[in-house]
Design goal:
17 strands; alpha/beta; eight-stranded mixed β-sheet; TIM Barrel; single chain; seven-stranded parallel β-sheet; 384 residues
Amino acid sequence: MIHLSGKVEKIGGVESIKGLLKLSRNPALVPILAKDRGFVLIDGPPQSEFKAIFLPFASKIIPDVNCPVYRLPKELEYLGEDDIVAITPDDSRMRVLYRNNSHQNSILLTERCNHYCLMCSQPPKDVDDSYLMDEVKELVKLIPQDALEIGFTGGEPTLYGDEFISLMQLIKNFLPNTAVHILSNGRAFKDIEFARKYAAIGHRDMMLGIPIYSDDPVSHNHIVQAENAFDETIRGILNLKSLNQAVEIRIVLHKLNIGRLKNLCEFIVRNLLFVDQVALMGLEIIGFTRANLDALWIDPIEYKDQLSEAVGILNAYGIKASVYNSQLCLVNKDMEPFYRKSISDWKNEYAPECEGCTRMSECGGFFTSAIKNRYSKNLMPFRD
């Protein structure tokens, strides 16, 4: 499991680092670039003046430089070229905001939300966290232009209104070739003018991931704990697709909606056949899911046949389907073409029962939170 934060120890220099910092391991980086970067010392001292120096945990050498010097914790020694970090004002902790070698960079835009989903992994907070938007705008300008993909999540990012549109335009300007995936409940796009502003950005590879949890409006609204959510989400999707915008439907699988999974997929192929893809996702046992676990938890082995039937319906009508957050031994063999290793490496583990499985490298494993709380006791590791 990769760590995205940790304690740092400031051992040299007077000034603190303000704002975000892009890192380098190149001691010979040209001065014009080095002056705005942090240097991760591995093989030898820098030949240029950097904005800060970061030492491995066990390093005994403190370079004689005119900038802040920090000792990294062991779990962050992986940091390297073009990674982007932030250090707290008291110089005690570091957050990793972007990893250049990862395809799983997910960027939090806000913790505010107009849903209160029973299985929310990021419980909403009624706070002014607009500083996150300011930080993300700075981050976007630092991300390498050859980045393959980035994701944005919340809370509900569209609660920023026109500022959300401005951020997406900024991304179009700085990262025109980077695939962008945005998690949203889609309700803001019921306003056709807002949907048109989004469409006008014209990014070549930008997709919204929008959840629908049931074909029954009452059930969907109960799961997200918001009135009129189903109708507004469907209207939002219709508006977006009328403007040729890419939309993914996300379905989190749990006890409250598994009984109507077939019905939901039939609803999608009858009414939303034009969506770009559908993701069927296992539970992440964190946040509200942990509080509502007994009401939500169902062993994946109990619904593997329903999952096969649901994916079969989508596939028969030409809708791209993907199975996320599941274990390879708990899905039917006909699901393997649709199976994805989807759990981000910073929250991914395998159960003790997986030891010796011959297909572990193909399997997505578990969320760390599942290992700590609850997972299927019907694992069947492959042995040949």
